[in-house]
Amino acid sequence: ARTRRTGKPRHQASSGARASSTRGGSSKRRPRSSSGERAASGGQVEAQASEARTLPTGHVTFLWTDIEGSTGLLQRLGDRYAALLAEVRAIIRSSVHRAEGREVDARADEFFAVFDRAPAALEAALGIERTLQGRAWPDGVEVKVRAGIHSGRPTLTDSGYVGLAVHTVAR
Q1: Which residues contact 26 (CB under 8 A, 6 or more apart)?
Q2: Is the pLDDT reported for residue 4 higher than 70?
Q3: Confidence check: pLDDT of 47 > 90
Q4: What is the rounded distance in angstroms from the CA atom of residue 51 to the CA atom of residue 38?
Q5: Measured on CA atoms in the order 99, 169, 49, 88, is the torsion positive or negative?
Q6: DSSP assignment of 121-151, as one string?
Q7: How are beta strands 160-163 and 155-157 bridged, if at all?
Q8: Would you say the C-alpha torsion 157, 163, 165, 166 has a positive or negative sign?
């Protein structure tokens, strides 16, 4: 697993926006980057989770992965990319669950998880790397997964985590 250390965003912010529900049932549009992050107040980034209230709080460690060169893989494999993505996600989920982590979100080729302990996040990242090594993929393509790990004290809201720790791990 590789850790990104550039401090620069991998993706440029998109000009599009996606709808998000508010408590009153109305729809509110927020800008979202191409990596699926939503802008929050104070320059922070918000991460969504379907069961936010059950996620750990306090000092936590995040694991964020993505498939290196996913656009090229999609172009090369076409409709067969969906099966490759499903298999990669299954590998990541399995490693996260074995290390006692929790899935927060999965979008496109990205996967976001949280752990109570930093060594568990590292264990999951290493498990992903070991499982991917030497695996045969369609058309002989090479699949590499990048992983970022970061610890911090984010705020847990009804819609997921908010804070600089989320922003940092996504880089």
Answers
A1: none
A2: no
A3: no
A4: 17
A5: negative
A6: HHHHHHHHHHHHTT---GGG----EEEEEEE
A7: antiparallel
A8: positive
